[in-house]
Amino acid sequence: MNSIRELRAGDKSSWLILWRGYLEFYETEIPEEQTELTWSRLLDSEYNMHGLVIEDGGAICGIVHYSFQTSTWSPNGHCYLEDLFVDPQIRGKGLGRALIDAVYDIAVKSGCSRLYWSTDETNETARKLYDTYTKESGKIQYRIQISSPD
After folding, report:
1. What are the residue ranges in the chain where pLDDT is below 50?
2. Helix-helix angle 12-25:32-43, to 10 degrees
């Protein structure tokens, strides 16, 4: 039986495994300090970053992170689903969909006018799931990397 719940302090070791798997999937590395900062932000009820986990048979096997954003186009803003990852060994059981649906429900209850996320164009497996919700927006994202001051 699957269950979804908010991330808790005792979840750190399971979260770290999934977080590192997520970063590996996207072929990226971040400093350990950033991982620790992300973890502390996820647990800080005053910070606008939230996390859910999904358990399968009592084991954490998926994570999702999201935040709320104000908008000039909406009175109640938007919900941004930033990270979604399910253990590759148990994909195909609807766990990713369940996590998206959980964030969708939170966004609706919060009065958001939009739930959105992005993925790499080459992430075909995830895009098959995402396309069952809606077609991609046609927007192209531009990024300017800004280095932090030394």
Report:
1. none
2. 130
Domain-embedded: residue 54: yes
Q: Look at the alpha carbons of 78, 79, 82, 85 in this order and tell me if their dihedral is positive or negative.
A: negative
Q: What angle do CA 42, 20, 86 make, to 5 degrees?
A: 80
- Residues with Cβ within 8 Å of 55's Cβ and at least 6 positions away in sequence, in order, are 2, 3, 4, 5, 61
Q: What is the per-residue pLDDT across 76-86, written as a single tens digit (0 to 9) for each?
A: 999 999 999 99
Residue 59 and residue 88 in contact, taking contact as beta carbons nearer than 8 Å: no
Q: Does some domain include residue 145?
A: no
Residue 46 within a domain: yes
Reported pTM: 0.89
Distance CA 63, CA 27 (A): 18
Domain residue limits at 94: 2-130
CATH of the domain at 29: 3.40.630.30
Q: How many domains does the chain have?
A: 1
